[in-house]
Amino acid sequence: MDWPAYLFACATLILTPGAGTLSVLGARARGGKRAGLIAIAGLACGDLILVVAVSAGLAGVLQQWPATQLLLRWAGAMYLLWLAATLWRPPTAVSTRAGHHAFRHSLLLTLLNPKAILFFAVFFPPFAPPGSGISGLLLPGLLFCLLNSLWLLLLLLGAPAQLLGPRWRPWLATGFVILACRLLAG
């Protein structure tokens, strides 16, 4: 395995903000750092599930059933819009439940994202040694999950509270809406 190339590719992907980053920042905006940490755990679990599923051949099944891809795309977009709506609610209506729901929200966000599924299906196999099967995909996948979680943790703990205060909630919500539109556009 070409570890330097793999680590460079991981860094490039991890440092590009996406739905996971918005999920963590949104959870922090709704329920503080604790909710953000719980959201990171949900994203990591979702990523791990996808790594195992793709290693077991899920991506091939999805490529054979385009209707399933379309259904996943619509479900993912609707979920992103729902997350945006939770950020547009007044902070007092959401903040008491934010920590309890951050894990589930982040987990579902990852599992309902067809781009994440296809990303794992396309990104990891080229780095696995030929003929290594599931075990050859698990190590790079676990490493990606660890690096992504560490980056999100640094982002969460390093972001100033003013950046994630109530006045920024509409901007985070707008980010979710943009991601949902991009997902629906294909």
What this model shows, in words?
- This protein has 186 residues and is mainly α.
- The protein is 81% helix and 0% strand.
- It has helices at 3-14, 19-55, 58-64, 66-88, 91-95, 98-111, 114-123, 133-158, 169-185.
- The model has no long low-confidence stretch (mean pLDDT 78).
Short description:
The chain has 186 residues and is mainly α. It has helices spanning 3-14, 19-55, 58-64, 66-88, 91-95, 98-111, 114-123, 133-158, 169-185.
Give a quick set of tags describing it.
186 residues; 9 helices; mainly alpha
Chart the SSEs and their pairings.
Blueprint lengths: L2 H12 L4 H37 L2 H7 L1 H23 L2 H5 L2 H14 L2 H10 L9 H26 L10 H17 L1
Number of strands: 0
Q: Output the helix-strand order.
A: HHHHHHHHH
Radius of gyration: 17 Å
Largest sheet: none
Mean pLDDT: 78
Contiguous uncertain segments of 5+ residues: none
N-to-C span: 32 Å
**Which of globular, elongated, flat, extended, rod-shaped describes the shape?**
globular
Continuous helix count: 9
Helix percent band: over 70%
Strand content: under 5%
Assign the structural class, choosing from mainly alpha, mainly beta, alpha/beta, alpha+beta, or little secondary structure. mainly alpha
